[in-house]
Structure formats: structure tokens, C-alpha cells
Amino acid sequence: MTWEALYDFLHIKDFIYFISAPQLQDMLFPVKIVFIFCSIFFLFFVVYFMIKSSWLQHNFLEDMVDFFTWQSFGQREMNKQWERIKKRVESGVESDYKLAIIDADDYLAEVLDNRGYDSEDLKENIEKAGRLIAPILQDVLNAHETRNLIVYNPDYSLTIDGAKKILDTYEAAVKGIGMG
Known about the structure:
This protein has helices at residues 3-10, 13-19, 22-52, 55-69, 75-90, 94-114, 122-128, 137-152, 160-179. The chain is mainly α. The chain has 2 domains: 3-53; 75-179, no CATH class. The longest helix has 31 residues, at 22-52. The protein is rod-shaped and about 95 Å long. The chain starts with a helix and ends with a helix.
């Protein structure tokens, strides 16, 4: 079937010849130019706002990072945070142990807040998240109490082994809540 036969069948032969006439196309050329510039303008702003917004990150880049690194999105940042906290314990200074525990407690509070546990009291949030960290719930509560003792009692003494055990508890809690 040729185009001519198709046009005759649909009864649009006159319309097709009208819109493809060179005189009409010459008259519409300035309109075409305006539409081309408008399209380029809007395309530029769509690309610009896609780059500036977090939509692209949340809907595309997170999945790519998950796929290529075999880790959940944000896991690398979490690992960096824990390495920084653990380096404080390696310093051999008791005040650094205490700061590491305070940082770990703050990081746990941040993770809980990001997961939607928004109570003012961290202890309440830990208890609400208890199902995610059930095997170590009591250890996490004890670690939080130790953190409070460090903050409110400057004479509180802490050993390196105790600090490492508390940090291991916080790390297990953060990973359990972050993955849950």
C-alpha cells in the first residue's frame, strides 16, 4: 500500500498536502525556531534541577551504588564514621576512650532519628527499636548508661577493654538498626 492509497483511504489527502506545502512551511519557520529555543531552554532547566535536587540521588544513584559496591547505600559512610571512632580508642588515652563512647552514642541517636524513632529521650528510642537489636538490647542500654556516667561524672574511670566492648555493642546496634 502506497502513501497515496493510505491518504485516499483515510480521506486526508487534501489536509496532508496543505500542511506539507512549501509556502506554509516557510511561514511557520519562525515559529519552529521559537519552539526549538523554548525546548532547549526548558531541557536545560530540567537537567539543571535534576542535578541540584536529591530526587536523582534517591531514585537512581543509591541503586547504582548498591549494585556496584554490594553494600547498602550509606554503608561506606557508616564504616568511615566507625573507623574514626575506633581510632580514638587506639590512642591509648582515657579521655579519647570516653570521647569515642560519647561519639558512638551520638551516632546511634542519629541512626535512630533517621529510622524514624523521634522521641526526645535516647533510652526510649533504643527501647522502641528493641525488636531490631533484641539480642543486645540490654547491652545497648548498659552502654548508654555508661555514656551518661562519663558525661555527668568526670572522675569515672574506664579501661581500654571496657571501651572496646562498649564500642562493639554500639557498632552492633547501629548495624542492626541500619539494616533492619
